[in-house]
Amino acid sequence: MKSIGNSDDAGSVFWGVLVIVALGLGIWGIYEFATANYYRDPVQAIQQQATGLLAAGLGWTLLLVLLGAASIVGAVLSFISDRGKGL
């Protein structure tokens, strides 16, 4: 039976928050890029688009790294589990 104060819960919450932050950063970056207004202030629009691209690139890269790490950990744990069964 799993206890409520288990360290697995803290790890799950941490990774969940990290995924939400990465998604938020990526979505905010796309929003910043898409809402640049060249008619009002061209220099500010270029800065806004550069910031948006940087944020989106960091957010989506972080998300892909997290998904890759989760799949690698799953594969390693599956391999260890199969080795323990004698397969």
Draw up the topology in text.
Elements: H1 7-34, H2 42-84
What distinguishing features does this structure have?
87 residues; mainly alpha
Note down, in words, how this protein is organized.
It is a single chain. The chain has about 90 residues and is mainly α. The chain has one domain (about 10-85). Helix content is about 80%, strand content about 0%. The protein contains two helices and no strands. The chain has helices at about 5-35, 40-85. Helix 1 packs antiparallel against helix 2 (about 40-85).
Quick synopsis:
This protein has two helices and no strands. It is an all-alpha fold. The radius of gyration is 20 Å and the shape is elongated.
The biggest beta sheet reads: none
Q: Total number of β-strand segments?
A: 0
Percent helix: over 70%
Q: How confident is the prediction overall: mean pLDDT?
A: 83
Helix-strand string: HH
Q: Cα-atom Rg, whole angstroms?
A: 20 Å
What gross morphology would you assign?
elongated
Q: Low-confidence parts lasting 5 or more residues at pLDDT below 50?
A: none
Total helix count?
Answer: 2
Termini Cα gap: 28 Å
Overall structural domain count: 1
Structural class based on helices, strands and sheet pairing: mainly alpha
Q: Approximately how much beta-strand content do the residues carry?
A: under 5%
